[in-house]
Amino acid sequence: MGTVEQLLEDRGSVYGRPEVNHRRIAALMSAYLEHEVTPEQAAMLVLLVKVARLIQTPDHEDSIDDIIGYAECYRQIVRAS
Fold first, then answer.
1. What pLDDT digit, counting tens, does each position of 4-46 carry?
2. Per the structure, how many domains does the chain have?
3. pTM, 2 dp
4. Domain span at residue 43?
5. Fewer CB within a 10 Å sphere, N or C end of the chain?
6. Inter-axis angle of helices 61-80 and 39-56, to 10 degrees?
């Protein structure tokens, strides 16, 4: 993996800025759950999916990289609020 910044830049070119993408994710989660989910919560929930995967395969580099990336997304979302 490259840097976290490079990872987010690569993902951002596909999915858009973290705060915009996670606002969409939160809206879809909210509709499904019939309960409001914030973009910050959406980022944390996706990060927790990666944590769950690491419980099964603790050395899976892709999941570790994704956790780092989602933590940075979370930081950006919080700062943008």
1. 778 778 777 788 888 899 999 999 999 999 999 999 999 999 9
2. 1
3. 0.82
4. 4-80
5. C
6. 170
